[in-house]
Amino acid sequence: xxxxxNIIFGVLAVIFTAFYFxxxxxxxxxxxxxxxxxxxxxxxxxxxxxPSLKEKFDAIFSQFGVHRILFxxxxxxxxxxxxxxxxxxxxxxxxxxxxxxxxxxxxxxxxNKKLAGICLLLLVLVFFNGQNMETSTxxxxxxxxxxxxxxxxxxxxxxxxxxxxxxxxxxxxxxATIFSNGGGMFIIxxxxxxxxxxxxxxxxxxxxxxxxxxxFLFFCDYTKHERISIGLIDIIKNIPVLFSNFLxxxxxxxxxxxxxxxxxxxxxxxxxxxxxxxxxxxxxxDLLIYAFLTFYFLSAIAASISWLSTGVEGxxxxxxxxxxxxxxxxxLIINNIRNLPGYIYMLPLFFIVFNLFSTFLYAQKxxxxxxxxxxxxxxxxxxxxxxxxxxxxxxxxxxxxVEKLGWYHMPxxxxxxxxxxxxxxxxxxxxxxxxxxxxxxxSITESGDYLLIEGWGFLxxxxxxxxxxxxxxxxxxxxxxVSTFAEKRYDxxxxxxxxxxxxxxxxxxxxxxxxxxxGTYQIVISIKRxxxxxxxxxxxxxENIIIPEA
Length: 550
What we know:
The chain has 21 helices and 11 strands. The strands form 3 sheets. It has a 5-stranded antiparallel beta sheet with strand order 3-7-6-10-11, with no helix packed on it. Strands 4-5-9-8 form a 4-stranded antiparallel beta sheet, covered by helices on one side. A two-stranded antiparallel sheet has the order 1-2. It has helices at residues 3-27, 35-49, 53-61, 70-83, 88-107, 116-127, 130-136, 139-159, 164-178, 188-197, 201-218, 232-237, 239-250, 260-279, 287-310, 312-316, 322-336, 347-362, 367-383, 396-404, 499-502; strands at 63-64, 67-68, 422-424, 437-447, 450-459, 467-474, 479-483, 485-487, 506-512, 519-529, 537-547. The protein is α+β, with helices and mostly antiparallel strands. The chain starts with a helix and ends with a strand. α2 (35-49) packs across α4, α5 (88-107) packs parallel to α8 and α6 (116-127) packs antiparallel against α17.
């Protein structure tokens, strides 16, 4: 390939990486979400307030869920030392910088320098896209998941390097990997196999001995968690389901609920290249790629088992594990197949389209919803304002304590930041699609000049993939259409409906009453599918609201 092409692809890679980080900056919010309370606030309180070194040590290495999260806790302490408190935006930034580090190690596996530009662009477009935006602005997911993957890759890179000093550094990182996530133990098989293939058998035995000691220490005082309650018999009974989950998980970058076959085929492609490469002994020249892929495939097996009890929503937050599999599989092909057909050069074009579309599709559709809920719950419990739309799951004491210590303060609560876009829309000449829409209005609440409507809605006979929900307000004189925030509603699985109906079927609207003419309005649920450009599916509800005179 001409050198100028590599330069062009390199420039595009920089542009798309910058675009991704601009979105991360835009959607980063300095508030705790779910695991952030216990993993960050509770930990830091225990560590700082512990009177002895032993208790501080125990706080760092204590079990969290099924894991011990050493690296994430060290990052929390790092931020605390330099800022004197808790800063979720800083954790999010660290997590995304670690993703850049992962990209560095993946790019180091490219040996076909003629196609280095294409490889770099492919890496950026697959890795830094909207699919990963769902969790890359969530503090604990960033420093925990990106953290474990980064130190695992760094550890394998150093351990399989023949330089002695790097090996010792890699050994330290391998211990950190084991104690930073239960899945960190999956680095042991690929490293042991790699050292054996390098004919470093004494080093391999030393590594295994040290690794086993730390695995033993990992399980000292370990308490079985409900997430690992699946027994061996259940696993054997569900082997076909587990295999399907395994392949779908590998291809989660292509996840569309009603088209799971796309994820399945992507996973089948990756595992086929991996196995085919072993038969052709590609690992002799691409040992590092095989070490990385083996680690990721073992992680995917664990995720597929967990999937049996947690459901797909539990797997989707680990999509960051799947992107490197696709990237490294493509690199394996590019490194080993000479005289590649011309369509290989079109791959970046495909991924450019994929990147742009998925980024806009997945770039925090429900971020404002989560932000609103956390702030509202905080204000309701502590200041008597806000709305009780959300529970902070018994973590109020953590918030109260860190506020007293001056470590963290919830950002200002201002309803105008969440106000919906309102425009005129003629519902009188639009058909009512009673048979097409299921819905529920769960709450209608007033707060000063604002009206808040929350609920869910989905199409009965059509997929909700690439769809948006609007609220309509209509009477004989006026009609308005109102934008909403989206929310995943996996709790609706009890309705026994397909998954593609309930992903992002939740809605939440903050309506400025001053933007609506006084009167009584009937509420309408309006659903618009992305590719049906001028059509709305409308369901006029039984609920009415009254907008009084100013």
